[in-house]
Amino acid sequence: MSVRTPYRETRRKLLMAFDVGTTFSGVSYSILDPGQVPQIKGVTRFPAQKHVSGSSKIPTIIYYDKKGTVRAVGAEAVTDASIEKADDEGWTKAEWFKLHLRPKSLSTNTTMSSIPPLPNGKTVIQVFADYLRYLFECTCTYIKDTHLNGDTLLATLGHRIDYVLSHPNGWEGSQQYQMREAAVLAGLIPGTPEGLSRVSFVTEGEASLHFAINNGFASTKLNHGEGVIIVDAGGGTIDISAYARQSNSYVEISAAQCHLSGSVFVTMEAGKFLSNFLSGSKFSDDVKIIQKCFDETTKLRFGETEEMQYIAFGSYRDNEQEFNIRNGRLKLTWQQVASFYEPSITCIVKSVKEQRDFARQTLSHVILVGGFASSDYLYNRLHALLEPVGLRIIRPENHMSKAVADGAVSFYLDHFVQSRVAKVTYGTLGGVPYDPNDSEHVERQDQTYFLCSGQKRVGSRFLVVLPKDRRVSEKEEFRKPLMRQFKSKPEFSSVSVTFWSYGGSISPPKWRDVDARMYSEVCTVEVDLSHLTRKTEDIKKRGPKGKYYQLDYEVALLFGLTELKAQLIWKEKGVEKRYQADSSFSLTN
């Protein structure tokens, strides 16, 4: 199953996969030589990183000075020297910036207030670009240091580097577009169609599945038709996906889920508790410091043994017995600390059960990966809650924290997943014939209009092209016939269609003004049709108010891969013509 075939292309290529996480990031890569079986390698040394064998992650942190210049990144940003200099010179720290990309469906008042703001004058694309540039430079340095003739290799492959960027399951076309923009800004690729095509995307859930397959799970544990649930527990998000094995490939069997419930939210729960617990204490102003100490020490050690927990934050002179503070250590009960994990654990268990119920087929294994998966307490709690309902929890032995980066390379090379399930509903906005007997039409009387042909229509209708929860094979196409009428030739020179997604609970969604917050613009496709005005015999019509021009066309979506492809289709003299929005399609949000 996981036996990789030799690379079939005729030219040598370099592949880099960047896993930019909320709190930690990693890189994997592969040198693709014609006729050779590609190997997945990880970058295990970064500047200022403590030299621990096999270390493959660095903090997702950037420091900017007052002029907006990058001063420290990754492991360099958490050294004592950098932290002191940041305080002395007024540097600004960017952390958790990945979450500023999140779609509307993942935004709540609580999460928005909890996510650290971006540095003044910086957009999320600019910060993302600075971090991607740093990861690229580190990867190049690592290749030069560890490969024979590494300098020559990079010099000859500079324009033949492909990139895979991983992202949470809940990220959509808008987030992919912004990440690709960041890759251009970082100098990884040029902003040409050829350059943009060198970046591909994979969800963290699918990357984790590829990692599990390559680490021996699927070939020995699953029979044909059996499924597995992937839980990628990261710093910011929990990504949950379900797949079933079909011969030598996999199909997604339930719409993937994404929740803002990763390990940083355990720390947030600790912060809420500490603010209340230390109210009235002389250390109440030190809650942020104590919370940080919890995140870096106590949280990492917390396990199943029900013993008192301690957060060391000060010196032996720091004491306040009534608040359980002695010798600079705050004492908490095991139950208090366990409560910080409960929202995340509840979220995972609920989502896993939903995946199983929706799939309606044999699902007996849950693979737990990601940085948060290294928590023994998390693993043991999930084991206790899911084993009784017939779900076995498995943690791969090999570097769970690098599962996504390695899996992203495997996604590019091995392509195990052959079909996926739409997480949201995709469509476009338009008008439908007005029905005076339809109360919903009557309510929207102010949105009615007349076509050139005289037909009365009502707008604001969401025209579904690809419904949520639909399983889509890689080559399957979803089409919707549309029509546009124009009074004059100049109006007919181009057609623009905007695609939308709906992530709410209404099924099927019908009106843009109902549950409006859950609609997001995906992309806009504009086609130059000026050449058709010279051949009006096919498009010229006559209505009650004279002649007009009509274009009958279709919109199409292809969603078999992890990136949505949008097309406009029309006919000229009976011959079908297509225009596809490539990687440079314009986004309007």
* β-strand amount: 25-35%
What structural class do you assign from the helix and strand content?
A: alpha+beta
The coarse overall form would be: globular
Helix residue percentage: 25-40%
Number of domains in the coordinates? 3
Strand count, sense and barrel status of the largest sheet are: 7 strands, mixed
Average of per-residue pLDDT values? 88
Protein name: Heat shock 70 kDa protein 12A
Organism: Laccaria amethystina LaAM-08-1
Describe the structure.
InterPro entries: ATPase_NBD. This is Heat shock 70 kDa protein 12A. It comes from Laccaria amethystina LaAM-08-1. The structure is a single chain. A seven-stranded mixed β-sheet has the order 17-16-10-11-12-18-22, sandwiched between helices. Strands 1, 2, 3, 4, 8 and 9 form a six-stranded mixed β-sheet that branches. A five-stranded antiparallel β-sheet has the order 20-21-19-24-25, with no helix packed on it. The protein is built from 14 helices and 29 strands. The protein is of the alpha+beta class. The chain has three domains: 13-203, 2-Layer Sandwich (Nucleotidyltransferase, domain 5), CATH 3.30.420; 216-395, ATPase, nucleotide binding domain (Nucleotidyltransferase, domain 5), CATH 3.30.420; 425-581, no CATH class. Helices cover 28% and strands 31% of the residues.
